[in-house]
Amino acid sequence: MKNLILDFANLAAITRFGAMAKDSSTLIMTDDEWVNYFLDTMLVSLSNYINVLKADRVIITIESRSWRKTFYPLYKANRDAGKEADEKLDLFYDAVNKAADFMRDFTNAKVIKASEAEGDDIIAVLVQKFSAEGDKTTVVSTDGDFKQLLRYKGTRLFNPIKKVYVSEGYSHLDYITKLVKGDAGDNVPSSYPRIKADILEGLANDDERFEIEFKKVDNTIIRQKFYIAKFLEIDEIPDDLTDDEWAEVLEIAKEKKDKIKAEVKQAKADGTFKNNEKLIHKDKHLKDIIKLAKKENITEARLFNVIKSFRDGFKRNEKLISLKLDNIPEHVTEAILSEYNKNHEQTKQAEFLKFVRKHKLREFAFGQEWNTLKSIKNHN
């Protein structure tokens, strides 16, 4: 069985910006004209992929609010900021929703939307299901995250911009590197800033290396707290501090350090430093702390700034980026499979001409593209 999975959100964005670049008339269209134009362009684009990449089953993935947003509220927050400046965003979503409705109501494509599931989740769950069943699957998308799915037999990717297939090239080193360094496009931060290449290679080649590196950073944080306590002349830093409270302690230490340095600089400038025993003591105390910390590879910059737990950061990134089945919440996987197993045969064919007239799709409705979409069978 051959499966074709279309990453709908990805293809919609490609179609939108591609069409706008080629046709400047979109700039002077009314809102209704813009929606109808984009809807027509989107349907033609979908029919072209389906016609060229022939399959026994056609699946279109629709985005829902992701469970990742609940797990990590800053997930894709950078994209949300950009949406405010997009004047056509509401029209874009209107057209995209209409295209999805068209495919659901008037074709036999499986249009799948599941609670809390991104398109990535739907694609990941189905790719692994089909691979286990011995089926072949082509995923149409430019999303680099899907390269990790190439580890599953029978899976290949089709890049709709470059018009090329990718069926090999899964790199465990690349996968681990992304989990460690994060994904700026999705606002996933690095779990280990400025990590060395040899450490990454070690992590990719030996799972036991993770615990070693986790403990190294954990111990560095312990030593950082020891030196900050020494500098602030307190017994110890409490273990139960929240992240915000620890950041506040470091800010206090940083302000104290900067104040000492400023006083020393001023005293040396006006010639009073040598006679100021109290300031000399403060300066020596600060320099001794910095020197001792540096011997343990804790630079002055690291000493007075929050050092993030590599363990916690990696586990967070793995949850946000990995598309393995055991990483996707069970209730999300169940929702996806439930939607997939529903009867997706077209149910509103009687309303087809009404839809076509409303959105001025007459040329599309009687052309080759519609014949392609109409012929989708979706064998089970």
Description:
The protein is of the alpha/beta class. The protein folds into 2 domains: 2-171 and 323-374, 3-Layer(aba) Sandwich (Rossmann fold), CATH 3.40.50.1010; 209-307, no CATH class. The protein has 17 helices and 6 strands. A 6-stranded mixed β-sheet has the order 3-2-1-4-5-6, sandwiched between helices. Helix 1 (8-22) packs across helix 2 (31-52), helix 2 packs across helix 17 and helix 10 (243-270) crosses helix 11 (277-295). It starts with a strand and ends in a 6-residue tail after the last helix. The mean pLDDT is 91.
Q: Main attributes?
A:
380 residues, Rossmann fold, elongated
CATH superfamily of the largest domain: 5'-nuclease
Determine and state the CATH class of the largest domain.
Answer: Alpha Beta
Order of helices and strands: EHHEHHHEHEEEHHHHHHHHHHH
CATH topology category name of the largest domain: Rossmann fold
Backbone CA Rg:
28 Å
Number of E strands: 6
Give the end-to-end Cα distance, rounded to a whole number of Å: 9 Å
Which structural class best describes the helix and strand composition? alpha/beta
- How many domains would you count in the coordinates? 2
Helix amount:
55-70%
Q: Do you know the CATH architecture of the largest domain?
A: 3-Layer(aba) Sandwich
Strand order of the largest sheet: 3-2-1-4-5-6
Which percent band covers the strand fraction?
5-15%
Q: Could you name the ranges where pLDDT drops below 50 across 5 or more consecutive residues?
A: none
Number of helices: 17
The best one-word shape is elongated
Mean pLDDT across the residues is 91
Largest sheet: 6 strands, mixed
